[in-house]
Amino acid sequence: MKTDIQIAQEAQPKHIKEIASKLGLSEDDIELYGKYKAKIDYNLLKKPTGKNAKLILTTAINPTPAGEGKTTTTIGVADALSLLGKDTVVALREPSLGPVFGIKGGAAGGGYAQVIPMEDINLHFTGDFHAIGVANNLLAAMIDNHIHQGNKLGIDPRRITWRRCVDMNDRQLRNIVDGLGKKVDGVPRQDGFDITVASEVMAAFCLANNIADLKERLGRIIIGYTYDSKPVTAKDLKANGAMAALLKDALKPNLVQTLEGTPAFVHGGPFANIAHGCNSVIATKMARHFADYVITEAGFGADLGAEKFIDIKCRMADIKPDAVIIVATVRALKYNGGVDKNSLNEENLEALEKGLPNLLKHVENITKVFGLPAVVAINKFPLDTQRELDLVESKCKELGVNVAVSEVWAKGGEGGKAVAKEVLRLIEEGENNFNFAYDENMSIKEKMNAIATKIYGADGVDFTKEAEKQILDIEKLGFGNLPICVAKTQYSLSDDQTLLGRPEGFRITVREINVCSGAGFIVALTGAIMKMPGLPKVPSAEKIDVDENGVISGLF
């Protein structure tokens, strides 16, 4: 069996100019990064095309630690729509180097449903994440320099909330002391690093509509507080102009292609269990501007990614999905039914049926809470048995849930036609009563309670004393009407990753509340979620290598 990277390396990609021509773009409209990558100027959104694509969102049930093929399904169904004669574009997030070298390996799809050049996309790509990290760290440097040079703004070093970042899992950097040495070496203080995809710069970048909007968002970022408890912003430090200058080219969406030549925008990549987990607003709007159908994805399960896609991204960008694909796998359902990760390849109909309520809760959220038409795509893995596939399909149909088997990993676009045809039917015939999970003018506690009870199935929410105080401070500063971005484990509907399936009788505990005024949302931290992951005992980096000809191996 060929690996993902072997399949990608054997592909014969089209020149990116040919892919751009499918969007009606000339060579003058694109900025080439070699033969197979290009950036597209966001100002082309002003160019009339007469198109406003139907938007298809791909989400999933709660995953296993290994990931279950949501990106693969997104890409494969996009190729299937292209095969059916539809003018289609796929819009995805850029992979973070943290998971690439950590636990997941490559994140550009899999099998015969991939975006290419796979190695470039998984590694440095066009340098967007580097630019975002540098913009973040420029602000950090300007904060400490301001204090070193006399601290005119009266910033309290003990109340600086802005942290440095690097796009790598490195637990050693979570908590550090810097500024050590002589007086000229800075002011000693406690500090730390977040992973780049958890930076508020990343979130603001992905939610901005244009460069002017980005500069304004960056200026609103709160970096800490003065000795008399007043917030200090990046604009107060005169940092946002230079930060935006660093991000000017990164803000242009990246154009690549699938293995079958479907145009793909891969741009931005905030984590879904920490931030809002969607590709950039600009890339989504660009895709819709040049196609009739756009398929995009939201990170992890629908309790995280889809909820944030709808309640944050759709709200801010004034867009709405026309249909939703909910990816489920036999493996993930058995995992939610209590099967150990190492035994997922063994047939287990009892555990499979026990895990089905997790899927049905996600379907219920999409169709009843958000009012959107949905289809369950059963992403078929090579070791799934026919009895297992039949059980999932029959149980879904018993409950009136639309379902289709996806074989995109093995067959590419051909294997996604069943799902694609059902999506097209839903767009034409499905009932779309789009709604948000909450009104943004509700109080912070009311919004958090709405998410917890409606989306997670919790009995309610408990707030620590620290979170209670932070809520009062945030509302006093006038940020109480921002949407909520919950930082939560991806493995459970609850905030406890050991509660699998569809747990009942639980409450969500919010331990900390932070305002991300630049991104435009409030982060509610639950459980043990950290903004700087660590590497696992056997990181994927140990399997990644490059030979004397520059050929990379080990990226799955």
List how many beta strands DSSP finds. Answer: 25
- Unreliable runs: none
Fraction of residues in β-strands:
15-25%
Mean pLDDT: 93
Class inferred from helices and paired strands: alpha/beta
Number of helices: 18
The biggest beta sheet, please? 12 strands, mixed
Helix content: 25-40%
User: Could you give the distance between the termini?
Assistant: 12 Å
Question: Based on CA inertia axes, which overall geometry fits?
Answer: globular
Our Rg estimate from Cα atoms comes to 23 Å
Structure description:
Strands 1, 2, 3, 4, 5, 6, 14, 15, 16, 17, 18 and 19 form a twelve-stranded mixed sheet that branches. Strands 20-22-23-21 form a four-stranded mixed sheet. The longest helix is centred in the N-terminal third of the chain and has 21 residues, at 128-148. Helix 6 packs across helix 7 (200-207). It is built from 18 helices and 25 strands. The mean pLDDT is 93. Helix content is 35%, strand content 19%. It has 556 residues and is an alpha/beta fold.
Provide a compact summary of the structure.
With 556 residues, this protein is α/β, with parallel strands linked by helices.
Task: List the main descriptive attributes of the protein structure presented here.
556 residues, 12-stranded mixed sheet, 4-stranded mixed sheet, globular
